[in-house]
């Protein structure tokens, strides 16, 4: 008891007849766990953490009479393992996690007198599980005979039974069972569906299972623009079916669909379409399915002209417009394949702007149906991508449950082709390069003059002296100068008076009788 055992000990004496290991840390029963104790008759392994039981874990236990596995974590049991325990009389599996009982489960327990499956997770059981039990078969053969048959106690209470058509056979078995099979607690109760929860088995009458039958009161609807539309279908099925709606082969979101039972075998499913627009017209399909199959019903919706004559053409609110409930839309960014929208909403006085939902309608300008996107509170931008080039589109933003008004839609045309943008970018690159080359010419001239300055400063005194002596003898009449004459031209401009460094020499006055040197064109430098 309460030992830190993690596996069955291997040194158990061979003549042991009873083993009891409880409140320990056993997690599995591997193959041949008790092959050395073939004389074992009583095995108690209650309140451990056993989750796995090998199909040969009870091998060589031909004398085993009692097996108790209460309070473990078994979700399934290898029922064929009991072929190795033909003498078993007591099997206790309560307070585990068993959720399935296969039809052959009791076939290999012919001498059982006590079976406890209470407090598990069993929901559906076939009556064939007990019809194939040898104990039950013997009791049926012995009816009207004097032959004595041992009683068998059966405990099945405290399980979450689902009382629908799938449990019909088992409920009939419980109502008719009698000695030698004795129920420990004959008041088994239903856990679901809701309208049967808490009822005893003997209080319910379950019908046979039925494939879903789907129908709609009105399969053709015509509504004005802007009206809230509710599409309704009825499904008769047993057990309760799963219902979903599709439109243009797309599964519609569940938050616009409500399904509830209106009787034992009938459910009603409703699809809400807020602020119906022409884009919402089309065929809507209601589909129901259970384990027997599925059926569907189609409803055709047509959206007509606006129901308010004073409303501008093409727009209609679903209700009288609330003051201030308006959305201003603009394009924040546009690319070849999409745009980014930005909107600013002034909500009605009864609603906070941060709690406002929006409806975004996107599609080609001439399309009758547009995609609907619901935007949650606090979001005021959305990017629409994967659009076709050179196509005219329309995007509308409106407060949810209202149709877009005039001025809340944007019409735009996507770019014609990516190649045009690439050509435009190349042209821009060429223009930038040419401009850079033109601007680089004065910079190159400045660099050349800067490199020539040190040599000029060294020759500057002699040059200036020669200019004073020789006057204007060095006439610049030669037109054969090349780019090599550029430093010489620069040196002339760097001459300074001896008295002041960095000060400019004042312009010399013209003396009478001296001829002015001819003007030297800047082109002669090249």
TrEMBL record:
Bias (Basic and acidic residues) ranges: 493-514
Annotated ranges, domain Fibronectin type-III: 325-421
Transmembrane segments: 427-449
Matching SUPFAM superfamilies: Fibronectin type III (SSF49265), Immunoglobulin (SSF48726), L domain-like (SSF52058)
Keyword annotations of the record: Disulfide bond, Immunoglobulin domain, Leucine-rich repeat, Membrane, Repeat, Signal, Transmembrane, Transmembrane helix
Pfam families (alphabetical): Ig_3, LRR_8
Residue ranges occupied by any Ig-like domain in the UniProt entry: 212-304
Name this polypeptide is given: LRIT2 protein
Region described as Disordered: 471-526
